[in-house]
Amino acid sequence: MSAMPTATDLGKHPVSPVRLEGRYDAGLSRWLWLVKWLLAIPHFIVLAFLWVGALLVTFVAFFAVLITGSYPRLLFDFNVGVLRWSWRVEYYAYGALGTDRYPPFSLGDVPDYPARLDIAYPEHLSRGLVLVKSWLLVVPQLLVAALMSGGYRFNGGLTGLLTFYAGVSLLFTGRYPRGMYDLNIGLHRWVARVMAYGLLLTDVYPPYRLDQGEREPLG
């Protein structure tokens, strides 16, 4: 029996605490994606306020980590919740078009929803690293993320292009090409790792590695 892959096997990089997953659905509607921009408006409005809150929380968490070496759990859970909510909405809408099931209005994990995101809580974070993570070290990764998803959110860029092609494929063939889906999820996974690092949620630097497919490679 072959051994389970390790962090050393996957590019000699520490295992990322960020877990982004999606469940492939072969029975998507041919036309619903044409109106999801309208259906998702309530979520977009709520997320606009949540992201303002996430930035304020990160500002407070910066000083908490600098002084205590830990990220207050309530603040951590809020920011993870914002990332989780954003991922569900983008998975439903124009980040992936991966499901026709309407996303819940919740910061918490919804185990039976086809798009899930979680980040392991770190008991300790580096006090020195927090000084340079979000404005210096993360910059190269942010540039890559901008190409992949158009910026700090899961929309636009290469993921948006893939999603558009997926919508056209659904409209004319009734199917979402599996290879296109796996690549799109891999791109979102990379961006989620970058966002977690930029929001100070982890000290594990995002790997320059594209992990495609529904599930995390170490899951």
Describe it for me?
The protein is mainly alpha-helical and 219 residues long. It is 48% helix and 5% strand. The protein has one domain. The chain contains seven helices and two strands, in the order βαααβαααα. The longest helix has 28 residues, at 41-68. It starts with 17 loop residues before the first strand and ends in a 21-residue tail after the last helix.
List key phrases describing it.
219 residues, mainly alpha, two-stranded antiparallel sheet, disordered N terminus
Query: What is the helix fraction of residues, given as a range?
Result: 40-55%
Helix- and strand-based class?
mainly alpha
Radius of gyration: 17 Å
Assembly classification: single chain
Discrete helix count: 7
Largest sheet: 2 strands, antiparallel
How would the global form be characterised? globular
Q: Tell me the total number of β-strands.
A: 2
Which stretches of 5+ consecutive residues score pLDDT under 50?
1-10
Total tally of structural domains: 1
Task: Report strand order across the widest sheet.
Answer: 1-2
What is the first-to-last residue Cα distance?
Answer: 18 Å
How much strand? under 5%
Arithmetic mean pLDDT: 92
